[in-house]
Design goal:
It contains 3 helices and 2 strands, in the order H-E-E-H-H. The chain is mainly alpha-helical. The longest helix is centred in the first third of the chain and has 48 residues, at about 5-50. The radius of gyration is 24 Å and the shape is rod-shaped.
């Protein structure tokens, strides 16, 4: 392999490394957003539990507050939202883990290439 080919291969690896770092950053941001929404949902569920059965409950729909049909309906909706968010969080954590592994592997390959390790010379 010539130096030109090797440097093109190395440049491709470096580009993939940068893309993977951006992807990891995006996944981490998405996970943080989901965690925040999950915390807000759990807090809302806790507050709904404290209310009496006849207490009026409103939910935000865009720029409006809409009166709900009651405590039972809103609890059901909040629990469904919580389950959905927990599933999304788990999925993002798995994607984040896989991306970190791939990133570490690629960083190692790039580092070996830069150091001119025996693996790359063969």
């Amino acid at each position: 392999m010539t130096n030109v080919e090797m440097s093109k291969q190395l440049q491709d690896q470096i580009n993939r490394l940068q893309q993977m770092r951006m992807q990891l950053q995006m996944l981490m941001q998405q996970r943080q957003q989901v965690e925040l929404r999950l915390k807000e949902t759990e807090e809302a569920l806790t507050e709904v539990e404290k209310l009496g059965n006849e207490a009026p409950i409103y939910k935000s729909v865009g720029a409006l507050l809409i009166k709900t049909k009651g405590k039972t309906e809103i609890k059901k909706q909040l629990k469904e939202d919580k389950e959905s968010l927990e599933l999304r969080k788990t999925t993002l954590e798995k994607q984040e883990g896989r991306t970190k592994e791939k990133l570490t592997e690629l960083q190692s390959k790039v580092q070996n290439s830069l150091e001119g390790s025996p693996e790359e010379k063969n």
